[in-house]
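Appendix B. Extra example for self-study. Work through it before the problem class; the solution is given directly after the inputs so you can check yourself.
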Amino acid sequence: MNQSAPTSDQPTDQTGTLSYEQAGVNYDLIDPLKITAQRAAASTAVHLAGHGFTEVAASRGESAYVVDVGPFYLASIVECLGTKTLVADEMAKLTGKSYYDGIAQDTIAMAINDLITVGATPLVVQAYWAAGGSDWFGDSQRAQALVAGWKRACEVCSVAWGGGETPALAGIVEEGRIDLAASCTGLINPKERLSVGDKLGAGDAIILLASSGIHANGLSLARKLVERLPNGYLTEISPGVTYGEALLAPTVLYSPVTEALWKAGITPHYCANITGHGWRKLLRHPNELTYRIHSVPPVTPVLRFIQAQAKQDDREAYSTLNMGAGFAIFVKAEDAERTVEIARAQGIAAWNAGVVEAGPKQVLIEPLDIAFTNDDLQLR
Amino acid sequence: MNQSAPTSDQPTDQTGTLSYEQAGVNYDLIDPLKITAQRAAASTAVHLAGHGFTEVAASRGESAYVVDVGPFYLASIVECLGTKTLVADEMAKLTGKSYYDGIAQDTIAMAINDLITVGATPLVVQAYWAAGGSDWFGDSQRAQALVAGWKRACEVCSVAWGGGETPALAGIVEEGRIDLAASCTGLINPKERLSVGDKLGAGDAIILLASSGIHANGLSLARKLVERLPNGYLTEISPGVTYGEALLAPTVLYSPVTEALWKAGITPHYCANITGHGWRKLLRHPNELTYRIHSVPPVTPVLRFIQAQAKQDDREAYSTLNMGAGFAIFVKAEDAERTVEIARAQGIAAWNAGVVEAGPKQVLIEPLDIAFTNDDLQLR
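Solution. Structure tokens for the complete assembly:
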């Protein structure tokens, strides 16, 4: 069970530090359900035996669920975009443009970037577009942008768009809004591509891949900050670029990198999609290991701006936002430089940023003197 | 692309006939998007070749998308529950009970009953539970009922619950509401189980499987009718059974029947999940064939009640609601009686209800003197 950032209308201090929790996250209410659901879900794995199959138990708690179907592994997932559409809707009012082509990419990225962490090649994406009423689809500029962006993202990831749902849910989804999600199915083929962390160990290199901005996690915080800005989403954060536009930079699709790595003979030992919980996601795997980061990638301007406006120190910022690194790949040390080159050849900046060491479970971001321990991330 | 029933707030005559269109369906707004999306989706199939695979083109426009991955076919889907939760929420206020165990089954049924139409064995279900805020999950009775019902439905269908999403989407999903969906992945294994209609032909028998009530399609109409009832959802429609409770009877899960058929050596030529568009769904396959129904199953009391209250004639009712038949299986004539017996052995009433004939594309419901022609159903 993954979680998108919940939002609330808690009053906040208009000038002080704004943490993620203050932006409306209340995991205390969701977590008991999540734990019950995880246990119930785990208990259903036995049904696969009746079909001659078994689950890959190590994938429970990972970003995608994996089943051994004999000649290869089957991976599947459903992922929600979250609340990024609220920014797109506000910006559309301010500029008259539609941002739903980028929003489509964001939605697909949420599913694809999780699915590939286990070593899967994404094959089929299904669209889940639940609108607040039929009227949503009547804005043809916006609807066509959503279709065009969805198609283009499928092309980038070489996946087939299988179909989907376009329900109009008046009374459930708010009028004028849309709840976007994507499901994705893929294969881990051949089976040695499986990367659920069993090979992860001391000596591995940590490769970080660049993000394009906030991606689709941390939007609750980003939206809260607008209240503090006299020009709101139209505030310039760098010459000619508004806060709103910068927030809407589409999430990077990382599957071209993982596919290119496979073709080059590199099999990652593990991958982490850096979404909610920021760099604490580097602690995702349950193994007792230390992740020492010696090089920190440049921070994208919109994230630097959010950090400044929210008056967050580096520890808070790196524990919440991707801070310039959207995806981490753990590879054998000897594959590190080639992994960086292969990512760059796909047009994605990448850095050989750290090493895995024996030691207590923690992330040490040395240049910033930050340590996250296991207590900072409880995902399962 | 499938569609759930959109709803609107169009004024309606409080006493006259209430059609599905008057209950708020406006396909004119959704259809242009749907057609554009279908074309864009179809154009992405070429990407599978890069992975060594191909789509089963005949599955485009069917209820699930199918890819040939070599040793077997892969089928996948995402499906929305629709607005049935609005009835559950109203009934919870009136009775103090939670109906989310049944709602969970409904949601899974939406995905499973579509996936099995192509001959797939469902393997993995993912949960999509998008709430209007963290608070939704704080009602532990309701949340636990949702988990328990989800687990039980997985057990009935022998699928593994892989995981899912539990986002809190304040600003997108209405406060106090939840948008429920399920994705499902399965295999068609062995490949001769594929049922996309290529074997469907004159002489085949039409087996209808019983529904439990309204299932999860037609709820917009059912909710509109409440305005006409002095006792609303608490109106008794049969001794001791209220309208609300009857509406909330969970959707029948049909995969135990399709799996039992396979074990008995019966391979359906085609299947149709009777959801939106009622019995017009019998026209789903593009072939030019006549479907002659000689026996009409008993109509469940809640559907008879809706028909009477909405003052619909049989033609309108059968073109909108399942009218007692939730699923149709098309088999060789010689397999007809055994198919009925196998369904009944799974606890699901079934009838050898009609035959497929050469002739113009139409459904003839002889006992009711109703004909639906191709003009009555445009799904692709």
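Self-check: Chain A is about 30% helix and 20% strand. If your reasoning did not lead you there, revisit section 3.
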